[in-house]
Amino acid sequence: MIKASHISKIYQKDSVETVALSDVSFEVKKAEFVAIMGPSGSGKSTLMHILGALDLPTSGTYILDGEKVGNLSDDELADIRNRKIGFIFQAFNLLPRISALENVMLPMSYAQVPKGERLEKAKKLLGQVGLGDRISHTSSQLSGGQQQRVAIARGLSMNPSILLADEPTGNIATAQAEEIMQIFENLNREGHTIIMITHEPEIARHAKRTITIRDGNIVEDSNNQKQKRIKKN
Ligand SMILES: Nc1ncnc2c1ncn2[C@@H]1O[C@H](COP(=O)(O)OP(=O)(O)O)[C@@H](O)[C@H]1O
Ligand SMILES: [Mg+2]
């Protein structure tokens, strides 16, 4: 699904060079659920931007669902993002004045999905994240956890190849964060590929695999399954 090979990212600002990622390589297969962990400044957001085709690496190659993401125009990158990636952000990024239903329909409107189809799809997705009875609410009428669930439904609306979440529980109370992680676990069980960035071990443990980065390098890549099994017994 994802193949990142020797990815480096160097930011150049005036005469100062910052190496944000240094020769990072990894693969993510279909239906994996991966947490990317690391301290502040370790390169997590930089990696997320590259994986999300929001930015290009300085060197290295990135293949997303069979397509090479490199040497592409802004329009081509936007097209790849729309077709292949469902983004979930820390700050939800919902439009405040329109309903949950309209927020979920928005990406489908941009893609000119017929009205009846997008209405049906949006209702189904909101039901799936437990908001079937809140579809007419606007952001201010929803809790943080509920807003993030709307954002997840929106992220799924275009049937993306991967869900990419950057600190999805960063602005959410603990109990609601747990609900968001249950939704991610359920989606993953249904076959969705999820990559989630977090600095919280309690959140990362919901993933099946954890990649830890530090100073722009992968320092650990571990399977979480064994740990979970021990906890259950
Ligand atoms: N646009 C930018 N210009 C210059 N330096 C940047 C830019 N974005 C990030 N950096 C630097 O790259 C490093 C990694 O940053 P980032 O990917 O945001 O880390 P994290 O998300 O793990 O906190 C940091 O040293 C940061 O200061
Ligand atoms: Mg960051």
From TrEMBL:
All residue ranges annotated as the ABC transporter domain in the record: 2-233
Entry GO MF terms: ATP binding; ATP hydrolysis activity; transmembrane transporter activity
Gene3D superfamilies: P-loop containing nucleotide triphosphate hydrolases
Highest taxon in the source lineage: Bacteria
One cellular component term from this protein's GO annotations in UniProt: membrane protein complex
SMART domains: AAA
Matches recorded under InterPro entries: AAA+_ATPase, ABC_transporter-like_ATP-bd, ABC_transporter-like_CS, MacB-like_ATP-bd, P-loop_NTPase
Keywords: ATP-binding, Nucleotide-binding, Transport
Pfam families: ABC_tran (PF00005)
Family as reported in the entry's similarity comment: Belongs to the ABC transporter superfamily.
Protein name according to UniProt: Macrolide ABC transporter ATP-binding protein
Species in which this protein is naturally found: Candidatus Curtissbacteria bacterium RIFOXYA1_FULL_41_14
